[in-house]
Amino acid sequence: MLELNNSDIEKIKSSSHIVFFTGAGMSAESGIATFRGKDGIWTKFKPEELANFNAFIQNPHMVWEWYSYRRNIVRNAIPNPGHIAIADFQNYFPKVTVITQNIDNLHKRAGSREVFELHGNIERNYCIKCKTFYNNIGDSMELPKCKCGGLIRPDVVWFGEYLPEDQFNRSEIATSECDIFFVVGTSAVVYPAASLIYTAKHTGAFIIEINIEETEISSFANKCFIGQAGKILPQILEKVKD
Ligand code: BV8
Ligand code: ZN
């Protein structure tokens, strides 16, 4: 049963701004593979071979096919009870912000309204030459070409690329303002996204981690729940909603 004592419940109940910082583990129960878990994506592929611009230029077909394969999984996935609970928090608390490293759109599909996507969104694509956006394409494995002749790439942040400035800046502001900072389903090893956890700590937020195992940040979280996000988040909501 969920270990949430009365003072923690009161702390959450009296919060004015809650942030949920999420990673691939948030979508694991929706059938989307994580990156670093035992059957994670990086056990089969090397990130530098696929999730970076040079790999795309050297082998656009292979990288495009990999994203088309993942896009089809994302399209057939549905938000799990964890995504739905996070969206439901909006009905009981004045301000709820989601900061996600995920590119699967599931938080928005679950109904979360303020979602910052630090690593982009697999449903968006753009031409590397003229920057024209091509959304909702990519069912076919065929490498699409822009009318200008340029290559079309997924609108995700690859290794070595900068995060979208607006999304990251607004995430930093929300992190420094919030009083409760949930860290859900992330190994907290990818930067600069993971730096937000330290920002939250330094600005005095109460840090609650939810993960199926301990991570690098478990030692300084205020509360750690070991378990699945889709099970724990609805239980926490049950305890704190009026
Ligand atoms: C940058 C989008 C500035 C694409 C991703 C050398 C050169 C350049 C940069 C670097 C370098 N060395 C290091 C860096 C920085 C690098 C980095 O951090 N590398 C790490 C790996 C060491 N970062 C970058 O490159 C970033 N850009 O630094 O730019 C710059 C610019 C130019 C030159 C120099 C610097 C860009 C990083 C973004 C990369 N893009 N994804 C795609 O998806 O294809 S990263 C990828 O990792 C995903 O976005 C993912 O979300 C993210 C983080 O992983 P997690 O979400 O935490 O997932 P993971 O599998 O690791 O963990 C899942 C967790 O869930 C586990 O803990 C598991 O226990 C738990 N779990 C599982 N099931 C459940 C669960 N928990 C709860 N419930 C469950 N059911
Ligand atoms: Zn173009």
What is the topology?
Blueprint: H1 6-13, E1 18-22, H2 47-50, H3 53-58, H4 60-76, H5 81-89, E2 96-100, H6 106-110, E3 115-117, E4 120-127, E5 152-156, H7 165-177, E6 180-184, H8 195-202, E7 206-211, E8 223-226, H9 229-240
Parallel strand pairs: 1-2, 1-6, 2-3, 6-7, 7-8
Antiparallel strand pairs: 4-5
Helix pairs in contact: 5-9, 7-8
Bound molecules: ligand BV8 and zinc ion.
Ligand BV8 binds next to strand 7.
Describe this structure in words.
By secondary structure, the chain is of the alpha/beta class. It folds into two domains: about 5-30 and about 80-120 and about 165-240, Rossmann fold (3-Layer(aba) Sandwich), CATH 3.40.50.1220; about 40-75 and about 130-155, SIR2/SIRT2 'Small Domain' (2-Layer Sandwich), CATH 3.30.1600. Helices cover about 35% and strands about 15% of the residues. It contains nine helices and eight strands. The strands form two sheets. A six-stranded parallel sheet has the order 3-2-1-6-7-8, sandwiched between helices. Strands 4-5 form a two-stranded antiparallel ribbon. β2 (about 95-100), α6 (about 105-110) and β3 form a beta-alpha-beta unit. α7 (about 165-175) runs parallel beside α8. The longest helix has 17 residues, at about 60-75. The radius of gyration is 18 Å and the shape is elongated. It starts with 5 loop residues before the first helix and ends with a helix. The mean pLDDT is about 95. Bound molecules: ligand BV8 and zinc ion. Ligand BV8 binds near residues 25, 101, 102, 185 and 228.
